[in-house]
Amino acid sequence: MLNLDYLPKPEYEGHMPPSKEVCELWRDIRSVVGYDTLLEIGLNAGHSSAINLELFPTVHVTSVDIGRHDWTELGANVLKTKFHDRFNFVLCHSTAYFERVQKGEYEHPHPDTIFIDGGHDISHVINDIRMGQWMGCKYLIIDDIKSNNVKLIVETLMTFGVLKLVKEYRYKCVNTSKPNNAVGLYKCQPIQ
Ligand SMILES: C[S@@+](CC[C@H](N)C(=O)[O-])C[C@H]1O[C@@H](n2cnc3c(N)ncnc32)[C@H](O)[C@@H]1O
Q1: Ligand 1, from 21, 72, 117: best to mutate by most atoms within 8 Å of Cβ?
Q2: Exposed/middle/buried for 34, CB within 10 Å: 0-12, 13-18, 19+?
Q3: Closest ligand 1 atom, CA of 65?
């Protein structure tokens, strides 16, 4: 088990633990996707970013978070100090972030893939998936695929052929009323 005690402890809001099953999940996803540049939507205290940075020495992570918790910027600062240029944090709503990248106001992170684990409103999830298509990601990693909105959107996009499920992973999340969580790895159809 990885030791991520250097991160702040969130008082609430679910996050990935550095457990054996979560490390196996990321190792398996990386063996399929082969990513070195990961864009994450939803840093929280930094656990899923830290797991990637600890497990894969060549991986760079850019994480975008709206920063509604005190511990998010603290976690981002700890990761920046520990991993230097392998980690970047953008304090922003993912919808505004996407608009600003399109306008050239924010640097395009050129991600190999996106881990979508931010807002669960329908418009936010659609924005994050659309951003992945626009950025040319062949694969998307989507957390919480059993929760209502995410499930609805992902299943709808699968019927339209925009997303194709490659593999579903179950893991035990922490700090949540629904600890049995699921992550989906999807092939993503690019924007034509
Ligand atoms: C479930 S937590 C992320 C957990 C993290 N990925 C982990 O496993 O360690 C969700 C995070 O998304 C952020 N968030 C919610 N809506 C967002 C949005 N529209 N844009 C960016 N971040 C958002 C919240 O502030 C929260 O920190």
Answers
A1: 117
A2: exposed
A3: 22
- pTM (whole model) above 0.85: yes
Q: Which domain holds residue 89?
A: 20-188
In a domain, 137, yes or no: yes
Please report whether residue 111 resides in a domain. yes
94 lines ligand 1 (CB under 6 A): yes
CA dihedral 31, 107, 63, 188 (to 10 degrees): -40
CATH classification at residue 81: 3.40.50.150
Contact 115, 40 (CB under 8 A): yes
Q: How far apart, in Å, are the Cα atoms of 34 and each of 26, 29, 85?
A: 11, 8, 20
| Residue-level pLDDT, tens digit, the chain, 192 residues | 899 999 999 998 889 999 999 999 999 999 999 999 999 999 999 999 999 999 999 999 999 999 999 999 999 999 999 999 999 999 999 999 999 999 999 999 999 999 999 999 999 999 999 999 999 999 999 999 999 999 999 999 999 999 999 999 999 998 777 778 999 999 999 886
What DSSP character marks residue 15? B
What total number of domains does the chain contain? 1
Rounded to whole angstroms, how far apart are CA atoms 27 and 2? 13
| Ligand 1 center from residue 28 Cα (angstroms) | 23
